Amino acid sequence: MERGLKRYGTGGVVLQVLALLGCGEAPTTVAVANTAVVATPAPVATVAGPEKLVLAFGDSLYAGYGLDRGQSLADAVQRGLRDGGLNATVVNAGVSGDTTAAALRRLVFSLDNLPRKPDLVVVGLGGNDVLRQLPPAQTRANLEAMLQLLRGREIPVMLTGMQAPPNLGPEYTKAFNRIWTDLADQYDAALYPFILDGVIGDPSLMLPDRVHPNAKGVARIAERITPLIAGEIAGE
Fold first, then answer.
1. Has 212 been annotated as catalytic?
2. What are φ and ψ of residue 83, in 5° steps?
């Protein structure tokens, strides 16, 4: 299967008002301090094969906003990969409040501070762009610049998409939502269309701010994307 044809997701996207798509403007102690990448702790598990290195590059949804240490999405994905027998390390490069523009400025730094070239970069950004109602063209241009940079370094990419709420109007929503599908096609990247699919709107899976997933919500997201990441790093 061609990488560009991979489209992951369960369908039923729950969209909320603009406030529910904010990705946290206050820094979090479990996010990456001063934009430096921090490897998540390795759990005890029986793993085999050469080490696979994954960079989780995103905003507060990756960083673990409001959660205890070890509860971020990067932690949950690493546990899932290792529980499945993969010798994988997931590096958490999530920074709360990051727009795509801010993330673009730190991408080279994040890559250059890894011990080696990663086997996969999972990119999850855009929530703060829509919170600020930035033009979709800007979001697209920033994400495309990241993908061009990663392609130049011959690093495979998986995108976890974001969705704009309908109250921003059909023109904005259509332009914003199609960014991830278009870029995944153009750059042969795997795509999980909406990172909060099946989580946002469920109080049992969200923090009291109704913006960020709690530990159970993160676990739900990880359950869905970990097998997809495993397939990508295994070359399936």
1. yes
2. -60, -25
Among the options 75, 96, 98, 212, which is catalytic?
Answer: 212
Instruction: Give 27-51 pLDDT, tens digit per residue.
Output: 333 333 344 555 555 445 588 788 9
Strand partners, 94: 58
In contact, 150 and 121? CB cutoff 8 Å: yes
Q: Give residues with Cβ within 8 angstroms of 34, minimum separation 6.
A: none
Domain of residue 187, residue span: 3-233
Nearest by Cα to 213 from 93, 97, 71, 98 = 71
CA distance 7 to 92: 24
Q: Of 68, 83, 182, 209, which is the active-site residue? A: 209
- Taking only the tens place, the pLDDT of each residue in 49-66 is 889 999 999 999 999 998
| CATH number, domain containing residue 143 | 3.40.50.1110
Catalytic residue among 59, 60, 110, 119: 60
Asked if 169 and 209 touch (Cβ cutoff 8 Å), the reply is no
- Number of domains observed in the structure of the chain: 1
- Residue 209 annotated among the catalytic residues of the structure: yes
